[in-house]
Amino acid sequence: MNKVGVYLILGAVLATGQTITSSIVGAVVDSGDLPVVGAKLVLTQAATGIERRAETDALGNFVLSNLEPGRYTLTVEVPGFKRLERTDLILSPAERLSVGKLVLEVGNLVETVTVTAQGALVQTASSERSGLIASDQIQNLLTRSRNIMSLLSLLPGVVDINDGAVDSLTRTFSIFVQGNRRTANSISMDGMLLNPWGLGWAYDVAISQDSVAEVKVLLGNYQAEYGRRSGANIVLIGKSGTQQFHGLFSYFKRHEQFNANDFFRNRNSQPKARYRYNTWTYNIGGPVYIPGKFNKDKDKLFFFWNQEFWPQESVLTGRVTVPTELERAGNFSQSLDLNNALIPVRDPFANKQPFPGNVIPSSRINSDGQALMKVFDPPNFLDRNISKGNYNYVFDTPVSKPHRMTTLRLDSNISSSNRVSFSYYDYYNKQTGKMGLDTGGSNWPQFEKGYFFRGQSFVARHTWIISPTLISEAS
Question: What superfamily does domain 2-126 belong to in CATH?
């Protein structure tokens, strides 16, 4: 099989892509284990009805390549033999699936032999070691942060050190595969790389969990095209439209009203901290058609649209030590350490002897430095029986981090030999607050700050089957 790959440079950005399509290989033989030459094969995708046709070669072998992941039915027809139908072939991303030998029985084409019940298929067509997070797992397993990466810990050899500890959606992850560092993984969505070289443990574009169909993790011995990094290659495949309309709407709510106050806040006479994570998500997908005029059979053009919203409002709680009113005036006569001993303030111009009474003369105090102290709030917690001198100021500061994720996918089956797909992913995040933003900052609510991030990804792919042995795939 000859395969031509073309990679386009759009604008000033190099659009490096990886193959996400898959292949089905096998052989057709008769009951005497002799190869059947010229057997006609038809492969039909269950969700869209799209067909691929091929014939066996002189050795009875066949290869159906550049296939979208999904569920397929394979039929084989040869005059003088019964029609063979192999159903429920599940093809995962970047997979070379072997169906083994398909044995034909002598008979008429009007007779059909259907193979449905079978054992689990063993990967024999390639040497890679991989794992799969299937669509039903993505749909039915709950994750607190709705980050698709947290599901990878279901696979052997994968460790997530966050272990579900992240409350909200985030672009970062801490996935370690086969003992490699978290920066050694390569992550792609529909063939577009998501994590940059300089920040290998974060996405450029966060992806909604409801827009992902399945995840393939190539753990080792994978093909050279996946050799961008030394760790695992994590291949995310987006959902696409089918011949039937499907939609979803969901709402997830987490609120402090459902929580109990913790021990330390009760001890400090503080109310429950704000804890508000509301997640809204919806999607719809199906065929694009005009009854009786365009795409009448609903097998030419499909769409999928998804949006997810996180109007996230939370509070950061902290305990720090700030200057007291006496200390701002230079009077440290009541400044005690954790052992309740006086903290001496020494005079650098008097051989480092303590100031008399531990009070700095007003003539020695810089007025500008004294004015700068006003940036700190005054102490609001003075019970040393509780604080033990570790802090004198407790605070709750609100943080706003709304997220929005948008997905659009279009698939066009121009003909049996030409297929075009387009994917668009958009991530929007605007943050405001005095601390707790992704930009970092101080350990106390110093002043209001803002942070804005937006990532976008455009993926286009054209597959052209020039002949049974020559295929062009441009992405």
Answer: Immunoglobulins (2.60.40.10)
